[in-house]
Amino acid sequence: MIEGDFKPPCYLRAALLQSVLNSSGFRNPRLTALAAAEEELIIDAGGGVRLQGFLSRRHGGPSKGLVIIMHGWEGSARSAYVLSTGEYLYARGYDVFRLNYRDHGDSHHLNEGLFLGTLIDENLAAVRYAAGLGERSFLVGFSLGGSFAVRIAARCAEAPIPELRHIVAINPPLDPLASTLAIDRTPLIRMYFLKKWKRSLRKKQALFPKRYDFTDMLGMNTCMDITETLVRRYSGYADAADYFGHYTLGVGFIDRAGVPLTVLMANDDPVVPAEDFYAVETNERSRVIMQPFGGHCGYIDGPHLGSWYQPMLDRWFRE
Questions:
Q1: Pick from 146, 158, 162, 141: which is nearest to 67 by CA?
Q2: Would you say the C-alpha torsion 79, 33, 302, 92 has a positive or negative sign?
Q3: Which end of the chain is less crowded, N or C, counting CB atoms within 10 A of the terminal residue's CB?
Q4: Could you read off the pLDDT of 13-40 as tens digits, one per residue?
């Protein structure tokens, strides 16, 4: 465990404020060089699964490498923190690939099956494809994307991705059950996720009405109640505990990284319990950096709404 040095101004230290500002539309400029250069790619992720991504290549001058960005649950390739981070790195010489998971962004129509947090194989396939688009590639995952990133790092111990040089997981939930309960305990965060999840479920039901009926779930008021019902009805898992257990990150993940792995975590995260990380084991390729502040994936360092981790990513990748 490495203790960090992120010290935001006093007026930005509240964990909930950091978490809310992370996804705030105030961080989104109307037009960025990143968006202007993007090309949509539809990736064959195996088993008939198609995933959507956006590639922004630099023009004029060599690239420092390709950065793959994986968003959080109910985020997308156009989430504020994804665009802000992508734009920062693009402006500093990196090509950027932003991935949408199944049923995220505007990709619901691409697959009939539902998104689940256990779908590591298809997201690994997408990362393997994207990494091959550059000679030197890097991966950044936020929240659930950080969980995918940690699992990908562990998979690389047995099946390396030759171009992938460094993975950064930002506030990854080690215990998704604990994180879901934490979301439900914080009314503002619960309302944020419920609104986005219900909108996604409505979209999926409208596209595949013969397969899905989420009517009762749309009236539920906690993420845990929706998860329990959806998992029992549509996932093939026995219940929510069984489902969450299949992507809980314990021994054999961070300590088995097959590629350099940096895990960034905040001690005041209202969604991911920080105490889980004090029992984490690492290996010679992995490290955990704990910050006293930052909320959930925030680390907002001033009124310009940039994030402390953005210049750190450039530094870690260059190292």
A1: 141
A2: positive
A3: C
A4: 999 999 999 988 887 766 689 999 999 9
What whole-number distance in Å separates Cα of residue 150 and Cα of residue 120? 10
Stretch 250-264: mean pLDDT: 93
> Residue 236 and residue 248: Cα distance in Å, rounded?
17
Rounded Cα–Cα distance for residues 280 and 284 (Å): 14
Sorted by where each begins, the domain ranges of the chain are 2-174+249-318, 176-248
Q: What is the DSSP string of 139-199?
A: EEEETHHHHHHHHHHHHTTTS--TTEEEEEEES--S-HHHHHHHHHHSHHHHHHHHHHHHH
For residues 304 and 29, the answer to whether their CB atoms sit within 8 Å is no
**For position 91, what pLDDT does the model report?**
93
Distance CA 23, CA 307 (A): 12
* Segment 282-297 mean pLDDT: 96
Identity of the amino acid at 232: R
Q: What is the pLDDT of residue 250?
A: 84
For the chain, the distance separating the N- and C-terminal CA atoms, rounded to the nearest angstrom, is 19
